[in-house]
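Data deposition worksheet. Section B asks for the primary sequence of the deposited chain exactly as it was used as input, without tags or linkers unless they were present during the calculation. Section C holds the resulting structure in token form. Section D is free text for depositor observations; keep each observation to a single sentence. Incomplete worksheets are returned to the depositor.
Section A, Depositor: J.P.
Section B:
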Amino acid sequence: MTEEKIQGQTAAAPQPARRRLLKSTVAIPVIMTLHSGAALARTSNLAGAETTLDNVAGDDSDVFCARVVDQLPEGAYDLGNAPSFTRISRQKDGGINRTPQEIIDACQQQPQPGIILSSGAFNSIGGRTGWTEL
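Section C:
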């Protein structure tokens, strides 16, 4: 065989194999995984408790108390799939102001224990549940 024929055969041989390879890669369906919105919503309802009343959700007369479903080992509180809130009055009967610790204790001693949320956490979670900052 001449050198030209050998070069022509080696150059021509990969073409059909290459075409088959390219055709088969185009025919492979693309499978994409979408992350569940439920997983995002579940993690979005995790919150930490406020230990002071400096920046809490509420107004001059009430503080919002979020009901707790569970507490995770890391310390975050799970507010569940549909977080619920109640109001804790800043005043006792007779118009006397409660201390910050009395307000926190009142939230924790409800029929279903709760936590005091910051304004930012409440606005993030409360907006999706129908509650809004006053």
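Section D:
The CA atoms of residues 19 and 25 lie 10 Å apart.
The longest helix spans residues 14-27.
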